[in-house]
Specification:
Layout lengths: L7 H8 L1 H4 L26 E5 L1 H4 L24 E4 L8 E4 L15 E5 L5 E3 L1 H4 L6 E8 L8 E8 L2 E5 L5 E3 L13 E9 L8 E6 L18 E2 L2 E2 L13 E5 L5 E3 L1 H4 L9 E7 L8 E6 L5 E5 L5 E4 L27 E7 L8 E6 L6 H4 L10 E5 L5 E4 L5 H4 L4 E7 L8 E6 L5 E7 L4 E8 L11 E6 L2 E6 L14 E6 L3 E7 L5 E8 L2 E6 L3 E3 L8
């Protein structure tokens, strides 16, 4: 996730769109009046997106609940995805979550791992990697929890969450039980998740949000009460009217196991909420990671780190650099778009002009509504806001390509450079369809810089590090995180568009408190920075 503290509201806006537009029904009625759209700037947008999923070999649909109707909310929220370099060859592979169906498991219903063939195509290696799994998966976070140099995968589920240890040979092992993360009590709805080193001991801990307490035995039927009706159409019930979930923090013991410290850390006493995506980053820049939980239909949560193993709960909107937040949605001209239910989102410099843009995916949760109210389609377009460089954004439609305007009912999305060509591509989960892989083809070449971090005293993944890139009198700030968007995980190589600047200075604030600076770094390259050692060789990176 590209967290620019001056633009934090844009992430929050997209990740919690349902909560922001809340009514007394299950989700928003979309009756919020949109901000007047300004006149078009007339400026060209030099990023163009093409959906190449079919050509790339991403053929299998993401199974998730019914197609024509959703009886339960369990079928509606969908799941996330991740860019992960699981084999350390310097090319982003793809991990996609999946759900199933109430009437039984279709053969296509499984999480999937696709290996990057380095030629624009991918090979399904799910079975070879030991990652075939069926169930109601929700979120994914990626990091090297055991500091062995290979990224591991944690998946949340309705039911039992799963931790997959990367064996370093192209395979994974489910170590949930031996790691102490097995839930033997009542069924939980795992939602968002994030690795973080909250006590700065060099070992990655784990935070898991939980959505609702749900059971098939007690779930109301569509149309049964006011939370099961949308504009007169009976629909699946919730989240309002259903009991909220409880969130959990697990401390890494440094030996491959975790201990639940939710009560001791103050997490268990949090305000009741329908937790979703989790982002862990140092929001007040005091050197300690904090936790943001985007929530559905309830206020989102911000847990500030007290530096003693505990957290205090606060509220958020836009960060002023001291952990205080202000509402700037309308000032930024983002309030022009209120038509859709929004899900995965990201702040990414899509055209490399030095100003991060906003892209989010959309899709209704009620496929049955469109048949009676065609003005509320189930499949809707992606939304892209171009950064105008003056604190405001401009919504684009056809200028960025058909891959943006083509309608889908999408959920998670991840941002990364799968073809190593120096621009940001987008992976998107589509409900009961194959995923989309939006390849970014720049019309005009601009400069960029990628930064990959390797912790030594800090955790190996450098989760929690902040990187500042200075160029042409401007500065961009990004944090290394393990989950963002909606239940998804981005390329861990931080990408900075530099516009016309051919060099940049780089500041790194490592999770253990070390601050390092690198001057006059040439543009248009990936640099790998190892804590206390400086620039080291990249693993397998080649420009295509």
């Amino acid at each position: 996730m590209m967290i620019n503290r001056r633009s934090f509201v844009l992430f929050s806006l997209c990740a919690t769109a349902q909560q922001m537009l809340g009514q007394n029904q299950g989700i928003a009625t979309r009756d919020v009046k949109a901000q007047a759209k300004p006149a078009a700037s007339g400026r060209p947008f030099d990023a163009h997106f093409t959906d190449i999923a079919k050509e790339a070999g991403l053929h299998a649909p993401v199974i998730y609940g019914g197609i024509e109707a959703k009886k339960y909310i369990l079928e509606a929220n969908g799941c996330g995805c991740a860019f992960i370099d699981y084999d350390n060859d310097g090319w982003m592979d793809i991990f996609l979550l999946s759900g199933t169906r109430l009437e039984g498991d279709p053969p296509e219903a499984t999480n999937r791992l696709y290996k990057n063939n380095r030629d624009g195509t991918f090979t399904d290696v799910t079975d070879k990697a030991g990652l075939r799994a069926v169930g109601w998966a929700n979120g994914v976070c990626v990091a090297d929890y055991n500091n062995d140099g290979f990224d591991d995968i944690f998946c949340t589920y309705f039911g039992q969450n799963r931790l997959y240890r990367n064996n370093g040979d192209g395979t994974f092992t489910d170590v949930t039980k031996q790691a102490g993360l097995w839930e033997s009590s009542s069924t939980r709805w795992g939602a968002g998740c994030a690795f973080l080193d909250y006590n700065r001991d060099g070992h990655l801990d784990l935070f898991v949000s939980n959505y609702i307490r749900f059971s098939f035995e007690h779930a109301p039927a569509p149309g049964e009460n006011s939370t099961c009706n949308w504009k007169g159409v009976p629909v699946n019930c919730g989240p309002r009217g259903l009991p909220t979930g409880k969130h959990s923090l697990y401390r890494n013991n440094g030996d491959g196991t975790f201990t639940d410290v939710s009560k001791q850390a103050g997490i268990a006493a949090a305000t009741e909420s329908y937790g979703m995506t989790v982002v862990a980053a140092d929001f007040d820049e005091d050197g300690w990671p904090d936790i943001f939980v985007a929530c559905d239909s309830t206020p989102s949560l911000l847990f500030m780190n007290n530096h003693d193993g505990t957290f205090r709960e606060e509220g958020v909107i836009r960060n002023d650099g001291k952990g205080n937040f202000d509402e700037v949605t309308r000032l930024a001209k983002v309030g022009v778009e209120t038509r859709f239910t929004s899900w995965g989102a990201g702040l990414a410099d899509l055209d490399n002009d030095g100003y991060p843009d906003v892209l989010f995916v959309t899709g209704s949760v009620y496929p049955e509504v469109e048949r009676k109210l065609p003005q509320y389609p189930y499949k809707t377009p992606r939304v892209l806001f171009r950064n105008l460089g003056n604190g405001t954004f401009e919504e684009l439609e056809s200028q960025a390509g058909e891959a943006i305007t083509t309608p889908h009912s999408s959920r998670g999305c991840a941002f990364g450079d799968f073809d190593n060509d120096g621009d940001m591509d987008v992976l998107i989960v589509n409900m009961n369809e194959p995923p989309s892989l939006l390849r970014n083809d720049m019309k005009v070449r601009r400069n960029w810089l990628k930064v990959k971090l390797e912790g030594v005293k800090s955790n190996r993944s450098a989760i929690g590090a902040r990187v500042l890139v200075h160029y042409a009198g401007k500065v961009q700030v990004q944090a290394v995180v393990s989950q963002s968007s909606y239940y998804s995980c981005n390329d861990p190589r931080l990408h900075f568009g530099l516009g016309a600047s051919s060099v940049a200075d780089v500041d790194v604030h490592w999770p253990n408190g070390l601050h390092e600076q690198y001057k006059n770094i040439a543009a248009n390259q990936l640099i790998t920075l190892r804590e206390s050692s400086g620039i080291v060789n990249n693993k397998g990176w080649k420009r295509s």
